[in-house]
Amino acid sequence: MELKEIRAFLILAQELNFRKAAERLNITQPPLTRQISNLEHHLGIKLFTRTTRKVELTGAGVHLVAEGEKLIKASELLESELRKLSKHKSATLKIGLNRIAFHSSMPHMLSSFKEQFPNTKIEISEESDSKILSQLNKGIINIAFSQTHFKKSDIEQLVVESQQLGFIVNKQHPLSTKKSLQLKDLVGHSLVFHGKADKLGFQSEFLSLLNQSNIKVKIYYKKIHESCENLAIINKGIILSTKRMASLSTNLAFIPLRDYSPKLKIYASWKTEDQSEELKVFINFFKTDISLPSSGVGDHF
Question: What domains can you pick out in the chain, each with its CATH number?
Fold first, then answer.
């Protein structure tokens, strides 16, 4: 199904006369007849009923008028946006990532985008969840990648990555010999969490789970100048995180949870009012560049 056939169909649907429609399209009647026949053959349904006296839309034709107009408008909008983008000698996209997003597949995706759109300058800042979301609200950055999920009418969000959560432990830690952990194995141990100000949903959900299961643990909230990985290295506690984070140091090991399968989701967040061409192109790029995770029973967070 080609756009020129849809355009021809829409003109004929307006005129209900092959001669008049052909004149508007600046073609003769035979090519118009062929385009309509090709369209009907491709769709496997009649769009018009024809007699020697009149041409009328079928039920399928009436439906295609509404949907066809949407399709043409969408194609015209896309063409306009791409033409505008091609005229940009240089555009800047400002992106904020928290530490977990920074060590996810996001940098690779950003590199791929840069290869495809070399004229777009990318500025990246690595900050805490609270800070990058504050920057997003103030318009300092165009898009944020973090673990914060919220419902706000002026913010749009999309899950761009979902990673299995487990515990990162120092290889000298008593739990490091285990191949997997159960919640009861955590009793009495110290857990290192991000600061409360970061408001990370997966931490809150896990704490609630521990309370419901009556699992007593010690919680250490890292300070602003501290990193969770370094605290694990010095055996301050174990970290609820992803396997990729354990690869940051040879002193750390990742142990999955056996009786619980939480997921850490990375959200892309952007302001609905931000209609910049570079942001639209970027969002469409990562929508096709990533495999979006499916939700299921194990998708707790």
Answer: 3-87 (1.10.10.10), 91-301 (3.40.190.290)
